[in-house]
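Propose amino acids for all 102 sites.
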């Protein structure tokens, strides 16, 4: 008896986050915290802060989570700096949502 074969199932390619992946902008952007204060609190370098200014990043803007590797490369941030920033961004968003950022 020949071995049974199961039909192959194609795995869809990732297409990036959908708009519904992000919370409403007001949820994490309703504050008066400056980029400078954000960078100081999370120990982000002056170089990282400069690159975030160029990206027009406002602390809590969740759209930054949809940037692709190529976007980060174009911004001039290193891989480590971009990952450090994203970790800080996520902590910040959680702190804003929970009311614990001070």
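Proposal:
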């Amino acid at each position: 008896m020949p071995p049974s074969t199961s039909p192959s199932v194609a795995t869809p390619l990732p297409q990036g986050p959908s708009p519904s992946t992000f919370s409403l902008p007001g949820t994490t952007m309703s504050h008066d915290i400056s980029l400078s204060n954000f960078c100081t609190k999370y120990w982000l370098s002056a170089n990282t802060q400069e690159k975030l200014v160029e990206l027009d990043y406002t602390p809590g803007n969740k759209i930054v989570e949809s940037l692709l590797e190529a976007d980060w490369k174009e911004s001039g941030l290193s891989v480590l700096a971009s990952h450090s920033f994203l970790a800080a961004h996520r902590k910040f968003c959680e702190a804003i949502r929970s009311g614990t950022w001070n």
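The chain has five helices and no strands. Residues 35-98 form one domain.
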